[in-house]
Each structure stands twice: as C-alpha cells, then as structure tokens.
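User: I'm preparing a small set of examples for a lab meeting where we compare how different chains pack in three dimensions. I only have the primary sequence for this one, and I'd like the structure in token form so I can line it up with the others. Please keep the answer compact; I'll paste it straight into my notes.
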Amino acid sequence: MDRRDFLRFSLAGSSLLFLSPTGRAENWTSPLTGSASGLSKIEARYYQKLPDREIKCELCPRFCILGDKERGFCGVRENQGGKYYTLVYGQVASLNIDPIEKKPFFHFLPGSEAFSLATAGCNLSCKFCQNWEISQMRPEQVKNIYLPPESVVASCLKYNSPVIAYTYTEPVIFFEFMYDTCVLARKSNIKNVVVTAGYINPEPLADLIKVVEAIKVDLKAFNQNFYRDYVRGELQPVLESIAQIAKSKTWLEIVYLVIPTLNDNPEEIRQMCRWLKAEIGPDYPIHFSRFHPMYLIKNLPPTPISTLEQLRNIALAEGLHFVYIGNVPGHPGENTYCPRCGKLIIERYGYAIKKKELSGNKCRFCGQEIAGVWS
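Assistant: Understood. Below is the structure token output for the 375-residue chain.
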C-alpha cells in the first residue's frame, strides 16, 4: 500500500482507524462525540484583556471583541471568564498523506509527501469552499481525534514523511497547535508548510514565519468587492501578508482559483500580476486553478480551460516567471519551464512528477538558477 493512501477515516461508530503501510489498522484515540465539554482548552495567544471580562482577539484582521462565553468568528476560540482559549489544540478533523504538489507547491521539494492535517473552523466564509464540511463547522460539530504535537511528529518519523502540511481549513485559527508542532518538527529535521488564505495580523505572521519553510497563500481575487461578497473578508490584509512573507525570504507560492464571471476579469488579473511583480518579484509561482461548482456556488460552470490559458498568458506577458494552470491534469501549463532558455525542466501530470531536468537548483540545459526549495 502506498503511503499516500495509508490514512483512512472510519467515522462510523466510536473509533477512527489509522491504516499503516502494511495495512494494519491502528486505533489512535477515539474521536470526540461532539460535546463542547470534550474539547481541548489551551490559552490562546494574541489577545488583549478588556474590562468586564471582555477580550479582543488580535490574531486576525477581524479583531473580534468577545464577552464571556462568546466565540470568535472562527468558532474555535472562546472567551471563558476573561481568558481566551483555543478549543482545537490537537483536535484533528482531517488527516492524510498527500503529495506536496496537491497543496499545491511546485517549487518546494517536488515529489515529496506531506503529512497533512487540519482542525475544524475558519476565519473566512468562502461561498466556494471545497472543505466546508469542516471549515465552516465548530469543533463539536465534527468528529476529531486527539493528536498533540508529539504524536504528529512521531507519526511523520514512523512513516518517513519529510514535511508536515497545515492545510484543508485555515491553519491561522489553530495557530497554537500549529506553532508548537512546527517547533517540535524542526528538532527532528521535518519541514513545515502552511496552506492559508493569508488572513492574519503581522505579529503572529512574523512569529509563524520563523518556524516554517514555505507558505502557500490563496489569493481569492484582486477585488475588494469580491472579498466582501464571497469571502466575508478584506483584500488588503491578504496583500500585506503576501508582501511580508516574500520579504522574509520564506518560500511562497500563490493560488488563484478562477471562478467564471466573478474573478476572471483579464484587466484585474493584469493589475494583480503587475502588483505581484512590483511587490514580491517575478520568481514566486502563481497557480491559476480551475473552479468546479461546489458548496454555495453551484450555478456556475467549471472554468473554461481557454480562460485559464488566457490568464496564464497575461501573467507571463507581465513578466512573472513561473505561472501554472491547476486542476487540469496533463495540461502543458502544469510544467515548469526555464525562464532563460525556455526548456521544459519539470514535467508533471496532475500530482506526479514525470521528468525533472534540474542540476541542484539550476536548469540542466543553460545553468539558470531556478527559484525554489529543491532539497
């Protein structure tokens, strides 16, 4: 059995099965039954105490002000008597081993596998979310296993996973669990990558950057109205996060899910690409991914491939070096081409690497250094 297939959730009954590469079921910890009383209770970081036992959350740009027994927008952080707690520390709602290309990271350890996990909750509410069954739920509304940082790292070592990916929902909302796991993972030479919408304040982001090797940001649109109407968030904090990550030299990749008629305006894409080149340079990859109808947006068709190709051509014309088409297996836009000689240097089919023409971090044909983390 391939390692990327070895994790399976069996949510019927009272146990969750973890299948090893040998096929032997390992019963980890019984999932929670859905009662709030069974949730973790670890004091949260990044909050300010206010009078009358109120608190102000300072983790993300929402700055939720909460009275006693109230939770933030994310649904996983709660004021209890004037102290702020995370309720999802170690409470894993989704777990798998994925190819790193699924995140997607195309310039970070290509061909490697990532021990991928998430808790319930999110600090955005995207109408097109593909993981809404857990991202738009409170932790007591889903089934979880308790997997603290020590167990996450031990699992990675046992199954030879070189990377932990904090993904699927929004890792910002399980910051404390993620941060502590990152610190522990690094001591075992395990790398950490984060898949996020970038809706986080500068201070916690600066702390996170210190303990991770790569961050992928989902840029939902280059339009504030779209963020307001379809995401329930703001564009500017995300742009600031992208700039902050790039300035730190932490590896960064950007995904832009192209939704027909909603965020596929060519002129907006052109302006976005100009902003990216000016603010972070031409070498961080951007992935234009194909939309498929889901969650609350089922009335629109999948993105035409011609639209993805048009937007990719715009980005290349604006001087971005690594522009990809996502969710279209077999398309030439999945491949990496040398920005100097134009030769194909990484050939992909979906998540699989078919060919790699790199010598270390350089194009094998012309010697051009290719931006990324290759080893």
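A couple of notes for your slides: Residues 335-375 form one domain. Residues 1-35 have pLDDT under 50 and may be disordered.

User: Perfect, thanks.
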